[in-house]
Amino acid sequence: MAQDPMQHTGRETTQDVVVELQDAILTITLNRPAKKNALTDPMYGLLADAIERAESDPDVRVVLLRAEGDLFSAGNDIADFSRLAEQIAGHTAGGGAGQSADQAATGTVAAEPGGPASAITGQMNVWRFLHALAACTTPVVAAVQGKAVGVGTTMLLHADYVVLAEGAQLITPFVDLALVPEAASTLLLTQRIGHVRAFAMFALAEPLAAEDAVATGLANRVVPAESLLDTARQVAGELAAKPAGSLTATKHLMRNAEALAPVIDREIAVFTERLAGPEAREAFAAFAERRSPDFSPFS
Ligand code: COA
Asked: Which compartment or compartments is the protein found in (predicted)?
């Protein structure tokens, strides 16, 4: 039988994120397959809106996160990263407020609260999404096929039930992009799989295969690609039939959202500083030019 790894819903739309409520399940679909579901800031805005809706709309009992195409998500849109880096650099050109002589010399910028970079990043939807997801008490089921890269993987650390298609891989190449991990993953991934494995994923971009993700507690099960969506829907349906108050209270007790928020903020500050630096700009240029980056000029 021919496989349909894309698990199409049959819906035609040009929206990059599609949100549908049916049978108390709010399905959020990443729908930018031509760009491997790379996430832009407007997409994060739609994702944040959807998660905030799940928390406030009593008709929503479960969130189902999925993606169209052969791959769950290629992570943050690197062209967006590049534009943001230029914007921050422009904002701080000539030594903006909060920029030290050392930062001016190295091309990094102050990202501490109130610093010039935070004035820009504080407005960004990605941080609203990450905070909303970390604080979300509605159960989140995720269905993942192909690769989940960067934030495509780190967002899964906030899901409560993760179904992977056979052959799926979790990849977090933050250091290869001269960045640092986000979404509280420096804490959560380390807690889940231990320091050395988390370090290898972050620093060496070692992919975690689907079976290993289950073995290490990052996912619940691996299923054939053609049954990925049905399996995730079945789990979401089971959860939707449970007493919602008890379910959200259980999740709230299990997750320490209050402790995660400062971790997310601390990561954001360093992430922003790295983003606007020369190493990251080399990494983004290399991706755009489809070549290997050369970090040798930077100390
Ligand atoms: N940001 C922006 N565009 C991206 C992207 C990203 N993160 N990932 C993929 N794309 C784009 C490609 O530029 C290409 O666009 P084009 O068709 O206009 O040239 C298109 O999506 C298809 O990507 P391609 O690389 O040809 O697909 P692939 O199946 O060979 O490889 C990936 C898929 C995900 C392995 C590869 O695209 C990749 O490594 N992407 C970068 C992942 C990353 O580092 N993300 C950031 C993590 S912090």
From this structure: Peroxisome
